[in-house]
Input
Amino acid sequence: ELQALVSRGFSQADDVARGVMLLEKTDGMARAAQLAGAYVQRAKDALSKLPPSNARQALETLADKVLTRKS
Output
């Protein structure tokens, strides 16, 4: 059912709420958070190869904020 919601781009009125409910009923949210954490770590590992700079610091901060945002 979740695949159908994603496939149609959550275009119907209650799609987002239904999707959240489906994810909360399973370990989907935890799995998504774990996967996001792994991608953030990979990004930060790649950034660590760059010389220190304000831009690098901003990208590292942005990567961390992706994991803690609420919406």
In short: Helices lie at 2-7, 15-25, 28-47, 54-68. The two ends are 22 Å apart (CA to CA). The chain has four helices and no strands.
